[in-house]
Write the structure tokens for this entry.
Amino acid sequence: MGNLQGWQMMFVLEGIPSILWAGVWWFMADDRPTDARWLTAEEAQAIEHHLEEEQRDIKPIRDYWAAFGDSRVILLSIMYSAGASAPTALSSGSR
């Protein structure tokens, strides 16, 4: 790490807490609301019911290629790409 530039060291130092926090959550987060010890039984059941209702309207997708071919995913990708490149396009156009 001694050969890193200042900006590279900044990325390393900013990344370490994120990685540590992900490790903590890997072991602490519960998979289902019914597994959460901090919810009452009634709260856990209400959340489970809400999740089941939410998932009922979603049709299953057979594989990743089918998901990437979905028009909503394509539109979202176009919108993200346009939004991500907009600051660069705007700043280079003003020169």
User: Anything to note?
Assistant: The CA atoms of residues 34 and 45 lie 7 Å apart. The radius of gyration is 22 Å.
